[in-house]
Amino acid sequence: MKERQFMGFRRPDGRVGVRNYLAIIPSVFCANTTVERIAAQVPGSVPLTHPVGCAQVGLDLDLTARTLCAMGTHPNVGAVLVVSLGCERFRPEELVEAVRKSGKPVRSLCIQEEGGTTNTIEKGVRVARDLMALIETQQREPCSVRDLIVATKCGGTDATSGLAANPVVGNMSDRIVAYGGSVILSELNELLGTEEMLARRAVTPEVAEKVRKAIREIENMLKHSIDPSLGDNRNQLISPGNFAGGVSSVVEKALGGVLKSGTSPIVNVLPYATAPQKGEHGLFLMAYESHDGEVVTGEIGCGAQLVAFTTGRGNPTGHPLAPVLKVTGNAKTYHAMAENFDFDASPVISEGRTIESLGDALFEQVIAVAEGKATQAEKIGGRELFCIARRVGYHRP
Amino acid sequence: MLRKSLMIDPADSVAMVLEDSREGDRIQTPRGEVTLREDVEFAHKVAVVPLHKGDPVIKYHEEIGYALTDIPVGTWIHRHNMGCDRGRK
Question: Which residues from B are below 8 Å from A349, CB to CB?
Answer without folding.
Answer: 6, 18
